From TrEMBL:
Keyword DNA-binding: yes
UniProt KW DNA-binding keyword: yes
Annotated Pfam families: Asp_aminotransf
Coiled coil (residue ranges): none
Signal peptide stretch: none
Protein name: DNA-binding transcriptional MocR family regulator
PANTHER family: AMINOTRANSFERASE, PUTATIVE-RELATED, ASPARTATE AMINOTRANSFERASE
Species whose genome carries this gene: Pseudoteredinibacter isoporae
Molecular function GO terms recorded: DNA binding; L-aspartate:2-oxoglutarate aminotransferase activity
CDD domains associated with the record: AAT_like (cd00609)
Keywords: DNA-binding
Length: 425
């Protein structure tokens, strides 16, 4: 389907054919949802052993009765697992509740209201606060910034990570830029894996940024490889130590898409100074996390080998779903310019770009045919995709055959919206 060379008559013929196909989908009464990156029930079943795994023994390795108060920064054995996941020393780890998003919100609150180097370092005392946001990116990151009234500035995402030439130039020119969001492995939604060069340049940002600058390093998909030859991710903590910028990076991860999404364990990795400031505030809000759940997880994942074996089972369930999405896109758009996408090597998403100006229309058409997509614009700050192109596809929850059907609808919607646009020009 070459819209660039098609006559008006050919376009009208394609529109009629696509409209008929679209109407056929509408008559099927579909109710398919590919909006959010959640584990499927089959994936959650992989961790059902958590239920009853303690067998009535509530003592941790060091003799702590996990049913009681205390242990603000988590069980030592859980800290060790977090340290291995994030490639940092154990003394850099704080273990939280089930949500790394909660830890990120709390870390932002610490920086904004209380500061990491005393009250005078609080961002709220320093005028306008701005954040760099690689795009397309994660809507919940943007929601945190918007909640605190932080201005968001976009940076394009390249094949090896954020455009660091632009990021460095912006930070040098504007000391009110206090931070940057990063999803370094299988970035949401593009699936980009940051290169070693990009990671080192991000680690060096603290040396050129204004006071109190913090990179929020959300390593949500560090364990979520789809293939055995997955790319390795260098440790940003090692680069920070090399360049003397240890205080400039806050790292996060969790088991939310590893065990139970609603009952996992979250990790934060930070320098001693950052941890001390964070725990001072946390100690006012909490007398300790859910250590029973932490102990359950240490029994299920006693070491990294067991964790990686568990994640291989996740990959077996996810891979067919991603294969369907990528094959449908290749078959429909591999020989034309109606769409662009990136092959997913891991994570939970496929990022698709329509022709400029069509994302909202595609989402609207898909919804009419019973397929829910993430709202167009969600992958940009304030919900504003300036070119109205990007759509995030999340195929993890539906069954494989349902993903296939949802993608048939999606392909039809993209083609129909593209023909409509060509006819209107």
């Amino acid at each position: 389907m070459d819209l660039n060379q098609a006559s008006q008559e050919q376009l009208q013929q394609w529109q009629a054919q696509l409209q008929q196909e679209f109407e056929n989908f509408k008559t099927q009464g579909l109710q398919l949802d590919i909006t959010r990156g959640k584990p499927s029930s089959s994936q959650l079943d992989l961790s059902n052993q958590l239920d009853g795994i303690l067998g009535g023994d509530y003592n941790s390795a060091n003799g702590t009765d996990v049913r009681n108060y205390g242990g603000l920064d988590g069980l030592p054995e859980m800290k060790q697992l977090g340290a291995e996941i994030l490639s940092v020393p154990q003394d850099m780890i704080l273990v939280g509740g089930n949500s790394s998003l909660t830890l990120m919100f709390q870390a932002m609150m610490q920086a904004y209201f209380f500061g990491y180097a005393g009250a005078e370092s609080a961002w709220q005392n320093q005028g306008t606060v701005k954040f760099l946001c690689p795009v397309p990116g994660y809507d919940r990151h943007f929601a945190i910034c918007e909640h605190f009234g932080i201005d968001m500035l976009t940076v394009p995402m390249n094949d090896d990570g954020p455009d660091m030439d632009q990021a460095e130039a912006m930070i040098k020119a504007d000391p009110s830029i206090k931070g940057m969001w990063c999803v370094p492995k299988y970035s949401n939604p593009t699936g980009t894996v940051y290169s070693a060069e990009t990671i080192e340049r991000i680690a060096k940002l603290g040396a050129i940024a204004g006071e109190g600058f913090r990179v929020f390093w959300d390593n949500a998909y560090v364990l979520h490889d789809l293939n055995t030859d997955a790319p390795a991710l260098p440790s940003i903590a090692d680069y920070c130590q090399r360049h003397g910028t240890e205080d400039s990076v806050l790292q996060f991860a969790s088991t939310s898409k590893v065990s139970f999404a609603g009952a996992g364990v979250a990790f934060m990795a930070a320098s001693p100074a950052n941890l001390a400031a964070f725990k001072k505030t946390l100690s006012i809000a909490s007398i300790g996390p859910d250590k029973v759940n932490q102990l359950r997880h240490t029994k299920l994942f006693p070491n990294m080998a067991s964790l990686k074996a568990h994640m291989a089972k996740h990959a077996e369930l996810l891979r067919p779903r991603f294969d369907v999405v990528l094959q449908q896109l290749q078959d429909a758009f591999g020989d034309n310019d109606l769409g662009q996408w990136q092959s997913a090597e891991g994570g939970y998403f496929v990022s698709f770009d329509t022709r400029p100006g069509l994302a909202k229309r595609v989402v609207e058409l898909a919804a009419e045919a019973g397929v829910k997509l993430t709202p167009a614009g969600a992958t940009y700050p304030y919900g504003n995709d300036p070119e109205n192109r990007n759509i995030r596809i999340a195929p993890s929850v539906p069954k494989v055959e349902e993903v296939d059907l949802a993608m048939q609808v999606f392909v039809c919607a993209v083609k129909l919206a593209s023909v409509e646009q060509a006819l209107a020009q």
